[in-house]
Amino acid sequence: MSETVKYTDFIRNIIDKDLAEGKNEGRVHTRFPPEPNGYLHVGHAKSICLNFGIAEDYQAQNALCNLRFDDTNPEKESEEFAKAIQEDVKWLGFEWHGEVCNASDYFEDLYGFARQLIEKGLAYVDESPAEEIAKNRGNFQTPGTESPYRNRPATESLDLFERMRAGEFADGQMVLRGKIDMSHPNMLMRDPVLYRIKRMHHIKTGDKWCIYPMYDFTHCISDALEAITHSLCTLEFEVNRPLYDWVLDNLDIPARPYQYEFSRLNLAYTITSKRKLTQLVEEKLVDGWDDPRMPTISGMRRRGYTPASIRNFCKAVGISKVNSVTDMTLLEDNVRQDLDSTVERRMAVLDPIKVIITNYPEDKEEMLAGKNHPKNDEMGTRTLPFSRELYIDRADYRESANKKYKRLVKDGEVRLRNAYVIRANDVSLDESGEIKELYCTYDPDTLGKNPEGRKVRGVIHWVSAKHAKPASIRMYDRLFKVDNPGAMDNFLDALNENSYSELTAMVEASLAETEPETRFQFEREGYFTADRYDYSKDKLVFNRTVTLRNSWVD
Ligand code: ATP
Ligand code: MG
Q1: Residues forming the active site
Q2: E strand segments, 271-343
Q3: Could you give the C-alpha distances from 474 to 58, 298, 306, 339, 543, in angstroms and in order?
Q4: Superfamily of domain 274-344+471-546
Q5: pLDDT digits (tens, 9 = 90+) for 66-120
Q6: Which of 434, 450, 465, 513 could lock 389 by a disulfide, CB 3.0 to 4.6 Å apart?
Q7: What is the CATH number of domain 348-461?
Q8: Domain 13-262, classified CATH 3.40.50.620, yes or no
Q9: Given this model, what pLDDT does residue 552 score?
Q10: What is the DSSP-derived secondary structure letter of residue 208?
């Protein structure tokens, strides 16, 4: 997309219209509201790019975006998750407005707003057992039945609610419910539970509270207290919208945000369910949340994806109200596209066989130069030592082959990238009949120029044996064998048992002089990244980020 064309979608159109009509005093304020109960995944990236992206696009209106932890469900939440989420948002390149917000910051306010509803006769304490409440809710065909506690005086509910908070009752003994409509066609409007008693230690408020507000009550009020203008969430919350509106319309509260829904990101061959991702981690089927095969932001980071590639991908997916499944190729193509122009080239021989240049003096060494990027001279050059013994890839030599094979064949010639043309003359085999060494001669007259009187079409990569360093290369493939693992009875049956393998390559010595998380193109092999944790100058570890071309066969 050219820079002069403004990126837009139906949500930005709504914002433009609101601005044109002078709504919200011309303010634009969004929020990203994760629950700190897992690491963020590629689906969250879409929501992050939307919410924070809007704040960036509406700079002229001083638009803002908050990061708010929706921490009302203490059982599964943790500080580790909260920290990881902040790191991921920053890594993607976004900044939230002010301090991190927490729904739990508003527990006192929420309690006050609940009292307000009770006083207005719009909420009541229900002592019915949970099963009774569930049963009396009715179903799509049958209206619900009103609770016997529904019409108790407000003073009685206020008293009980206060004593719920004071810890006088057992967990689940009673709840606070909104008094809406037991025959409402939307089941969520049939006197929804607003507060429950639950003795649980909370990551922020400790043991201060034994009653916790429910999502539908908390979210809209948190939005209002932060003066959010556009509260963006995924389509499954469409049914919650009437309740969102009901709560805010019935409270004396200074701001009035509105909720808009967009479709979730679903990515083929992976899962974006936090529950299932948690299961993979807890059952140790992957190497933690940031395993490079995971669709988590930290996993993609460790694999070598760039923030820009993920942001470009989210832009390419777009924002709509239609649920669909996005092909993994779109994500990978964005990664390739970004890396192609930004990373330096190196040579790494993944499956090395030794080459001996028999007409090259034993003690001679030459320092050749290789461009770091074929199309960008500003990226400079690096030194490539050349000597009598080299490594090339096993796949780049054949005893015999047809014309389509443009690499090294016995009695044939090939160019070594950035170096000479060599001819294969002979081989020696090991006990198992595999090639041990390849005996070649080089043409000293072919450095940087074509040989006289003959054409050499193939170019292969190589490293000098005595200069090269061994490196562990971690090869990753997709984690699942089927395109929609989430739809299986047991998604674990779809795990690809060959999604990980490790090999030892021989790589240019310059690869021992880099930093963790530096990305490269290993020529003819793909894009690779120095592992964030395990790479050091003494122990080279690279993760395959993505292949050079789409090699998936579906
Ligand atoms: P949970 O079931 O734990 O609530 P969740 O996927 O809704 O899981 P949240 O942490 O609540 O996770 O999500 C934070 C925000 O990210 C929400 O606004 C949610 O709508 C959005 N989000 C989550 N998954 C996706 C997805 N696949 N595509 C787009 N947005 C998503
Ligand atoms: Mg959620």
Answers
A1: 35, 264, 274
A2: 325-326
A3: 42, 17, 18, 18, 5
A4: Ribosomal Protein L25; Chain P (2.40.240.10)
A5: 999 999 988 889 999 999 999 999 999 999 999 999 999 999 999 999 999 999 9
A6: 465
A7: 2.40.240.10
A8: yes
A9: 57
A10: S
